[in-house]
Design brief:
The complex is a heterotrimer of chains A (about 400), B (about 350) and C (about 290).
Chain A lengths: L1 H19 L8 E8 L6 H20 L7 E8 L4 H13 L5 E2 L3 H14 L3 E2 L17 E2 L5 H14 L7 E7 L2 H4 L2 H11 L2 E7 L7 H10 L4 E5 L4 H11 L7 E3 L6 H7 L8 E4 L8 H12 L12 H24 L5 H9 L27 E6 L2 E4 L8 H13 L1
Parallel strand pairs in A: 1-2, 1-3, 3-4, 4-5, 6-7, 6-8, 8-9, 9-10
Antiparallel strand pairs in A: 10-11, 11-12
Helix pairs in contact in A: 2-11, 2-12, 3-4, 5-7, 9-10, 12-13
Chain B lengths: L12 H5 L5 H16 L6 H26 L7 H19 L3 H20 L7 H21 L1 H4 L5 E3 L4 E2 L2 E2 L3 H24 L1 H11 L1 H6 L4 H27 L1 E3 L5 H14 L4 H28 L4 H26 L3 H15 L5
Antiparallel strand pairs in B: 1-4, 2-3
Helix pairs in contact in B: 3-8, 3-9, 3-11, 3-12, 3-13, 4-5, 4-6, 4-11, 5-11, 8-9, 9-11, 12-13, 12-15, 13-14, 13-15
Chain C lengths: L1 H31 L6 H18 L4 H24 L7 H23 L15 E3 L2 E3 L1 H23 L1 H11 L1 H7 L3 H27 L8 H12 L4 H26 L3 H16 L14
Antiparallel strand pairs in C: 1-2
Classes of the chains: A alpha/beta (about 400), B mainly alpha (about 350), C mainly alpha (about 290).
Chain lengths: ~400, ~350, ~290
């Protein structure tokens, strides 16, 4: 019987706490939301990216909000799983969100039909789906940053600019899941065009072991360059494995999710010297936006500045927040209240020359191009930080656009 | 209070063997059905989505319980069989243009075939060795689907299906999806209840309890084990196919090892060896992460913490509480919710007396 | 041909590391008949503790290692007392689920205490490979293999020669008889979990230095299942043989078969192998056959 009294007690407490979570109604608040992975395979990204996003939204609100209206961002943790991602989206929709950030390629794929039906736009910077570059086919999905196809193109261009010629051996090391495989068509197309010898090496999830692949790359295939598309924990492992096998890291180019401080922390900075990664937004604490965040959100509130402010993934989060805010702003400015998902979509498509004070190359979004141009910048590990080694580049745009057309014809 | 069996006499064999022989039981079953049908009137779209998730989970859980609870064969491959059903339904709908109920049947049948194949080792290996062999099923099936583009539809391993429709009436809201799922779940439930009370069900239980003795009295062990795998995988396949129609895509990342483990958790917490228990377990496990999020967020709001400051703490606390609840639950009530439900019923049966 | 040797040597070295994790698993199963699905998470936890001691608190290796092993032993004791004791006598599947629940708890606590970033375990071992007869040998792999082998030999001695080890084997063989002879079965249970914790700790250092410490490290535990099944769930030499075999075969298979099937061979070859072996020898190579009585 004592157990029963305990259970009754616990139930009461649970109910009381649950009621406390009921959101209070408020007007003149524009709601947006998104998912975040803080416990799943990409949590090393999520714990820096999501605070970046919420910090930027806080900054916007501190400066008066979006044209006077408070912008409210609700983050729902989903651990990179689809069913919780779907539940999160439904909850955001119920609470009146007019735009969402969809985190994770499988979640983007799963939610695409719902976004199209509910007419609520989603931004997916840095995640799948590359075919949503064509906004006429996918009006409610916005990559808003270089997709994996554009990253592949840029990576191949960098390799070409650094001495690759006909017969150069390129190894494409990729994470063996739909997101990881997305880059393959472009890599293959470019390799065929330039006459490179290309071999593909898949790393099965969770990507913590790739011994045979690395042995094959370095001993049997004897690659000249490695183009890597890994995420989560596997970039750190790949750096260590290739270094252990004696491969020169300055010939190892990684897509955007292998290019954060978190990945190098995992591998060790002294180990990773020379490794090259691409970014779709600038990084560092010198950027005006980051300085403003540090001042207004942390110093003014007398809070310590966390270590990750200004890091690569944090800045990507800031970018996500900025895009959401900009889209909502244009929606309110061009189409007035009340804000709906469709108006935000038009707001996104009206973004012109948006560069957030030097944060990214001026981005213009059109109904035909939801990607914003597909620009990236190459950074290299030097000392204890990422240092830019190129300007904003993009490569093989024709091949990328051809692939977009091909994918959408199906 | 309502001493149920008092004054009820059966005069036919059919009456005695009926699923709900007592009038009170029959009335409450019909009442429950009516409530389920009327449920959409009372809930909003988000809660409807939650209910849909629970209904989906129940079907798979019932299937797994038939295999694990009634036949005693531990299986860690539920996710894989659901995956098979999901892709089959998607391919059938996409390539042959079949309506969704054909997709369901096709998904179930193919999954049953695959499940039977992976049940063959059960002839030779038992207990935990068999459990790990089913783990092999999970990995092998996942790899096969992932790497054969004929099945997986290309590099993305995602197949989109058009909105399913019921004779021209498109199913595109949570409420309509509920009515797509509910009949299947009800049929699954009733079928399972009847199966376990039949000859086949008794054979299953015999295999679980004393395999050697069962063989001696003439129960064909191998046939019934394979049958259990087949039936369980059929349920899994149907559940997987329903996922395809619910999400409108088939993607293998929905059906990982974690999925198999949570189905196991559902039936253990709900009650091994009982169909109603599977439903309880499915409801509990589906709601648990969501309720936990609300509770923790509410508690945080009460204490004045902004979400962003403690988001990491919350997210991991969720994991800890989830695991901890499983442990505590198994320590306190190892036979699951079904046993608790039985206790409640028994209490009211004798009320106001205590025995 | 050197490619083959490269793969094999690499695989064997990884195999010793698998064997180490498998050892902890088999120990628990032998003594308590519990299948510990949380072994991988214990390895992960050990890795986190090691990373914290070495990177965060900057303890020298000589101090950090004993502290790590001590912590893991205490953890093992605590788990046995707190989680497993209340479930004595319940059906096997319940206990299995409890270990799964335990795995979640360990994952959540590790991430909560130490954060979500991948941690590095810096060891004073050079990174550039040695080249022996055209085979590249990575120093870290060598050290890991040597350490694992050393511990395996140590445990073999422990079980053969020391009193406590023999007592543990007795309990594993026949609990009732052991109790009748006066062996403290409860102590043996606790000890088996403590030793499993210890092997997990070493495994954590070894795997963590190779791969980096993250909650994904726990998935190493999954890889161990084919190894223990191959060797036999209740056999210590079986764990070793199983681990080595799985390590070597998956490495060679992945190296040769991957290009034809687009990758992922490493994942499922161990399981295919496992099923094949199970059909021929249901209890693994060294496992004891379970004799059923009606």
């Amino acid at each position: 019987m004592r157990a029963n009294r305990w259970s009754a007690g616990i139930l009461t407490v649970v109910l009381a706490l649950t009621l406390g979570a009921v959101p209070a109604a408020a007007d003149h608040v524009i709601k947006v939301g998104g998912q975040c992975d803080r416990t799943g395979p990409t949590k090393n990204v999520g714990v820096e990216l999501c605070p970046g996003l919420t910090d930027y939204i806080d900054l916007v609100n501190k400066k008066g909000g979006v044209l006077g209206h408070k912008l409210e961002y609700t983050e729902i943790e989903h651990g990179y799983t689809v069913d919780r991602g779907v539940e999160a989206y439904e909850r955001l929709k119920r609470d009146g969100a007019v735009a969402t950030l969809d985190y994770g390629t499988p979640i983007v794929y799963a939610l695409t039909p719902r976004h199209m039906d509910d007419k609520i736009p989603a931004i997916t910077p840095g995640f799948g789906r590359a075919d949503s570059t064509d906004g006429t086919v996918w009006p409610y999905i916005f990559p808003m940053a270089a997709t994996y196809w554009s990253q592949a193109g840029a990576g191949m261009k960098f390799i070409k600019d650094n001495g690759a010629k006909k017969g150069t051996k390129i190894a494409h090391l990729y994470y063996d899941n739909p997101a990881g495989r997305e880059g393959i068509p472009i890599v293959e197309a470019v390799a065929k065009k330039e006459g490179y010898e290309l071999r593909l090496f898949a790393v099965p999830p969770p990507g913590v072991e790739m011994g045979p692949q690395v042995i094959d790359i370095t001993r049997r295939f004897k690659a000249d360059w490695v183009l890597g598309h890994l995420f989560g924990q596997s970039p750190a492992v790949s750096i260590k494995e290739l270094k252990r096998a004696g491969f020169p890291l300055n010939r190892f180019v990684s897509f955007v999710w292998g290019a954060g401080e978190a990945n190098i922390d995992g591998a060790g900075w002294d180990v990773s010297q020379g490794y090259i990664g691409m970014q779709y937004s600038s990084t560092g604490r010198d950027l005006p936006v980051i300085k403003e965040i540090i001042q207004k959100i942390y110093k003014d509130e007398k809070k310590d500045v966390p270590k990750y402010v200004g890091s690569v993934y944090y800045c990507r989060g800031v970018l996500n927040g900025a895009i959401l805010a900009e889209g909502v702003r244009l929606a309110v400015q061009n189409h007035g209240l009340p804000v709906t998902g469709d108006k935000v979509r038009q707001g996104f498509e009206a973004i012109k020359n948006f560069d957030l004070q030097g944060f990214l190359p001026p981005m213009t979004v059109t109904p035909q191009d939801h990607e914003g141009g597909g620009w990236v910048r190459m950074y290299q590990v030097k000392g204890t930080e990422w240092v830019a080694v190129t300007d904003w580049i993009r490569g093989y745009r024709d091949e990328v656009l051809a692939e977009v057309r091909k994918a959408n014809k199906k | 209070m309502l001493n149920r069996a008092c004054g009820v006499y059966q005069t036919t064999y059919e009456g005695d063997m009926a699923l709900y022989p007592l009038p009170l039981a029959r009335a409450s079953a019909i009442g429950a059905l009516v409530l389920l049908v009327l449920l959409p009137l009372a809930v909003d779209s988000h809660k409807m989505a939650l209910v849909n998730l629970m209904v989906l989970a129940s079907i798979g859980a019932i299937g797994l319980n038939i295999l694990v609870g009634y036949t005693g064969q531990v299986s860690l491959g539920q996710g894989a069989f659901m995956m098979v059903g999901s892709y089959t339904a998607a391919l059938v709908t996409l390539r042959l243009g079949a309506p969704f109920w054909v997709g369901l049947l096709a998904g179930g049948t193919v999954a049953a075939a695959v499940g039977t194949f992976f049940g063959i080792p059960s002839l030779r290996i038992k207990g935990l060795y068999l459990a790990i062999a089913t783990l092999a099923a999970q990995f092998i099936i996942e790899w096969t689907i992932n790497h054969s583009t004929w099945i997986s539809g290309g590099v993305q391993s995602t197949i989109y299906v058009p909105t399913p429709d019921f004779f021209g009436w498109p199913i595109n809201s949570e409420y309509r999806r509920y009515f797509m799922l509910l009949p299947v779940a009800v049929i699954a439930y009733v079928a399972a209840q009847n199966l376990v009370r039949s000859r086949v069900g008794r054979a299953f239980v015999a295999v679980r309890d004393r395999e050697v003795a069962a063989e001696i009295i003439g129960v064909d062990i191998f046939k019934y084990k394979l049958l259990a795998f087949a039936v369980s995988s059929f349920y899994a396949g149907v559940a997987g196919a329903l996922w395809t129609y619910y999400l409108k895509i088939a993607n293998y990342e929905h059906f990982t090892l974690t999925t198999s483990v949570s189905y196991l958790a559902m039936i253990i917490i709900g009650g091994l060896g009982s169909v109603l228990g599977s439903v309880f377990g499915a409801v509990f496990i589906t709601l648990l992460p969501i309720v936990l999020v609300y509770v923790v967020e509410g508690g945080a709001a009460l204490f004045g913490f902004k979400y962003a400051a403690i988001a990491n703490f919350l997210a991991n606390l969720r994991l800890i509480i989830f695991g901890g609840l499983i442990i505590v639950f198994l320590a306190i009530e190892p036979e699951g919710f079904f046993r608790m439900w039985g206790n409640v019923k028994r209490y009211f049966r004798f009320w106001p007396f205590s025995y | 041909m050197t490619f083959f040797f490269d793969l094999t040597v690499n695989g064997l070295m990884i195999g010793t590391m698998y064997a180490l994790v498998a050892l902890g698993f088999v120990l628990i199963y032998k003594a308590t008949s519990v299948v510990n699905f949380a072994q991988g998470e214990l390895v992960m936890f050990g890795g986190y503790v090691a990373a914290a001691l070495i990177s965060l608190y900057h303890l020298p290796l000589a101090v950090a290692l004993p502290v790590l092993l001590g912590t893991m032993v205490v953890l093992g004791f605590a788990i046995e007392r707190g989680v497993l004791r209340p479930l004595v006598g319940q059906q096997v599947i319940s206990v299995v689920m409890v270990t799964i629940g335990l795995a979640q708890v360990l994952q959540g606590s590790a991430a909560m205490v130490w954060g979500a970033q991948t941690k590095n375990i810096p060891l004073p071992i050079p990174l550039d490979p040695y080249i022996v007869w055209e085979i590249y040998l990575s120093p870290i792999n060598i050290v890991a293999a040597v350490v694992s082998a050393g511990f395996l030999v140590g445990f073999a001695w422990f079980f053969r020669r020391s009193r406590l080890g023999i007592a543990m084997r007795a309990v594993a063989n026949d609990q009732q008889a052991a109790m009748a002879v006066g062996i403290n079965v409860r102590l043996v249970f606790a000890l088996s979990w403590a030793i499993a914790g210890l092997t997990a700790g070493i495994g954590g250092v070894v795997w963590g230095s190779m791969l980096g410490v993250d909650t994904q490290l726990a998935l190493v535990g999954l890889k161990v299942f084919p190894a223990v099944i191959l060797g036999g769930l209740d056999s210590v030499p079986g764990a070793v043989v199983g681990g080595l075999m799985i390590g070597a075969i998956e490495s060679v298979a992945a190296g040769y078969i991957d290009p034809y099937v687009g990758g992922g061979t490493k994942d499922f070859i161990p399981y295919v192998l496992m099923i094949v072996v199970l059909m021929i020898r249901p209890y693994g190579f060294f496992g004891r056959e379970i004799i059923e009585r009606v």
